[in-house]
From TrEMBL:
Keywords: Hydrolase, Magnesium, Manganese, Metal-binding. Its cofactor is Mg(2+); Mn(2+). The lineage of its organism: Bacteria, Bacillati, Actinomycetota, Actinomycetes, Streptosporangiales. Belongs to the Nudix hydrolase family. It comes from Actinomadura livida. This is 8-oxo-dGTP pyrophosphatase MutT (NUDIX family). The keyword Metal-binding applies. Residues 36-166 form the Nudix hydrolase domain.
Length: 211
């Protein structure tokens, strides 16, 4: 009897599970309002060192979000959909080309305190090719394995003075990722990797993410 491959350890198996779970997930869209700006980002799953992983970047130490952890992506240009913007930025920022057929679904829009509504698009690529990060936008490129994202000790919740809790996604000893990016990774973990229903729009964001 053939043993099914674990989607946390096999990219092909992950693609099938991700498409199924995102296909039944009713994502929420932030409604238009005056002053709202929109952005698209990519949760890009690839194989790295023999294991499926999501590409995470550290922003260049200049301009908006200097030095922060993030996902490839950026604001929509005139006439673009969030998916089109996300794929364009994936190529512009780290040199990876993906098409509409590589998208397996999307998660909830995240209303960032910076005034952006961020749409996360999930992409699976068998062969992303060489990564060529743009030095103007990206300081470094990293890979967070699906198994690490799914681990029990990756999300940590820090109590806040107002009674709320601040999420920190600890992807490595020095990788402490907060919302918005941390929230997107957490929903990806819950919905896509673990098959749970989860929303993130009300997650606390650090003050320094308001830029």
């Amino acid at each position: 009897m053939t043993v099914p491959l674990d989607p946390l350890d096999d990219l092909t198996a992950f693609r099938g599970v991700a498409a199924e779970r995102l296909g039944s997930f009713e994502h929420e869209t932030v409604p238009d309002k005056p002053g709202l700006r929109r952005a698209g980002v990519v949760l890009c799953a690839v194989e790295h060192d023999g294991a499926p992983a999501v590409i995470v970047i550290k922003r260049a130490y200049r301009g908006r979000n200097a030095g922060q952890w993030g996902l490839p992506g950026g604001r929509l240009e005139d006439g673009e959909t969030p998916e089109e913007a996300a794929l364009r930025e994936l190529h512009e920022e780290i040199g990876v080309r993906a098409g509409p057929g590589d998208i397996v679904g999307r998660l909830d829009d995240f209303p960032a305190t910076s005034g952006f509504s961020i749409t996360p698009v999930v992409v699976v690529l068998d062969d992303p090719g060489p990564l060529t990060p743009s030095p103007d936008e990206v300081h470094s490129v990293h890979h967070a394995t699906l198994r690490k994202l799914a681990a029990d000790d990756t999300p940590r919740w820090v109590p806040q003075p107002d009674g709320g809790r601040l999420l920190q996604m600890w992807l490595a000893p020095q990788w402490r990722v907060h919302a918005p990016t941390g929230a997107l990774l957490w929903q990806f973990r819950e919905v896509v990797l673990l098959g749970r229903h989860a929303r993130v729009a009300d997650f606390v964001q650090p003050d320094w993410t308001r830029e």
